[in-house]
Amino acid sequence: MNKIKLLFLVIIGNILEYYDFLLFAHFGYLIVPMYIPYYAEQSHLFALIMFALPFLIRPIGGYFFGKMADLTSTKKALDSTLCYASIASILIAILPSYYYIGVISTVLFIILRSLQGFALGGEYTTAGTLLMDLFSLKKSFVSGILGASGTIGSIIAFAFSALYSGFFQGTEIWRLFFIFGGVATYISYNLRKHNLSILQKISLSKANNSNAIEQIAIYKTVALGAVTSVSCFIPMVYSNFYFTKILGLDTNIGLTATLISLVAYITFTPLAGYICDKINLNNNISKTFIIAIPFVLIGFLLLWDGSLLGQIPLTMAASIAGTNIHVIMNQMFPLSKRSRNVNLYFATGASLGGLVPALSGYISLHYNILYIPFLAINILLIINAYLFRNFSSSIFAIQLNMREQNINFRYQKETKNIF
């Protein structure tokens, strides 16, 4: 029962931090002209660019919070990410527009968006490291739940976007949505602060604590970050742009495309993790990336035909490729430097995910070249299939058992009088 409570606290924080971060994905086209008015006519394109900007900052935040987790405690790192995210959201909500304070608003807006990316760089993968240590069974399923939780945050943001489109167009009520996120995230921060007191730094005395880091582990982690983020943000972000700006369809069609991908990802990612656990697909990780390729092909054929149904196979591909990432990454680095390396290199790869929708949108709009996102996803799937062709979780079984026995002993000791 203790683990379930801990899972809830970790998941709720991840939901809210992704809500704060991805709210901009739905309101960026409205917000950008207020702070960068000289590009108002291209607000959708610059919204994609401003969506991509924080991804460049994510690796810095990933390393910062990862090192904090390695040297102090996972608790302190996870608390801090929520604190930074809460501050950024509230300040964006109250930031005066360009009309009132000129270019200062532009600079502050860019800084605050960057701060959101900085916080997100430490939240997702640090939470994944913690959960992989806590759960000795059904790791892929738990990894899938964590992946889906960020999408729940995006669905909440989407709901506010739909509410705005239906009843509040032309107003600045979007600021209340950012305040809601900031306040809710701060509440989650306090819940973690007072209930995750057991999550102190784990003793490494009985686990593999070698400082040696294989170069291939870095390449693999970057590749995982890239394929996960690209495969997610193409259906969740780029498709909206494609339907509305490339095909010229109604805004509601674009919103529907986004909603389909969000619901599909929440549904399929834990399911894919459950299946991986059942058939022990973790012992042949390469197959998951190969299986995803036909779904990408079907999805883009439907997308290019103007069908919203393409969102389903595209999102299924993202779920299949992304459900195991936490299981894999947390086996590839020595424990003494694990969090900082997982965070840094995954966030570096994930930065590509934020850039691809913007680059794809620009190239599609100006050069009518529509196959860039299709090529990006497939190339990354093939690269990952090659990198993990000989990877098997079973070779880490002894190390993982030692780690889990040590962790479970510490948790039993420290949780005795907590709940």
Condensed summary:
The chain is an all-alpha fold. 79% of the residues lie in helices and 0% in strands.
Describe this structure in words.
The protein has 419 residues and is mainly α. Helix 1 (2-35) runs antiparallel to helix 2. It has helices spanning 2-35, 43-71, 74-94, 98-101, 103-134, 139-167, 174-195, 215-246, 251-279, 286-304, 311-322, 325-329, 338-367, 372-387, 397-414. It is globular. The longest helix has 34 residues, at 2-35. Helix content is 79%, strand content 0%.
Helices and strands, with pairings:
Blueprint: H1 2-35, H2 43-71, H3 74-94, H4 98-101, H5 103-134, H6 139-167, H7 174-195, H8 215-246, H9 251-279, H10 286-304, H11 311-322, H12 325-329, H13 338-367, H14 372-387, H15 397-414
Helix pairs in contact: 1-2, 1-3, 1-5, 1-6, 1-7, 2-3, 2-5, 2-13, 3-5, 3-7, 5-6, 5-13, 6-9, 8-9, 8-11, 8-13, 8-14, 9-11, 10-11, 10-14
Largest sheet: none
**Tally of DSSP helical segments:** 15
Structural class: mainly alpha
> What's the mean pLDDT score?
83
- The rough form would be described as globular
The secondary-structure element order is HHHHHHHHHHHHHHH
N- to C-terminal distance? 9 Å
**Poorly predicted segments:** 198-209, 394-405, 407-419
Oligomer: single chain
**Percent of residues in beta strands:** under 5%
Number of strands: 0
What is the rounded Rg?
A: 21 Å
- Work out the helicity level: over 70%
